[in-house]
């Protein structure tokens, strides 16, 4: 158990270097931009970006791909709520309530509910993992 904790702390220290943290943040913004486009999801974003990571060091490439993958699954909420167009299959159910709320002027409330539900779902799913 101690060895795993040491390795996790070393990985966190590696990720928290300013250069890699900036790459991670860039990946988040890039993933958000790609994820908002209907029809493009996380798999497409990763497939497009993998060739750009060939000349990067492995830790930086992982930070970029991690940032992209982290937000593409939730960024499809934005077109579903605002335009009534699901970005991916996972956002199809969001249209029924989220888009109706946006039409009534409650888009912020729909975004808040969607983001909180996604965060709780992600945390609880990871907590249940064996």
Task: Walk me through this protein's architecture.
- By secondary structure, the chain is mostly helical.
- It contains 7 helices and no strands.
- It has helices spanning 2-15, 18-36, 42-49, 58-75, 77-82, 92-103, 107-127.
- The longest helix is centred in the C-terminal third of the chain and has 21 residues, at 107-127.
- The two termini are 15 Å apart.
- The mean pLDDT is 87.
Sum this structure up briefly.
This protein has 130 residues and is mainly alpha-helical. The protein contains 7 helices and no strands. The protein folds into 2 domains: 72 residues, no CATH class; 55 residues, no CATH class.
Characteristics:
130 residues, mainly alpha, 2 domains, 7 helices, 75% helix, globular
Strand content: under 5%
Helix-strand string: HHHHHHH
Task: State the end-to-end distance.
Answer: 15 Å
Count, helices? 7
Choose one word for the global shape.
Answer: globular
Low-confidence stretches: none
Total beta strand runs: 0
Helix content: over 70%
Average pLDDT figure: 87
Derived structural class: mainly alpha
Tally of distinct domains: 2
As a whole number of angstroms, the C-alpha radius of gyration is: 17 Å
User: Largest sheet, described in full?
Assistant: none
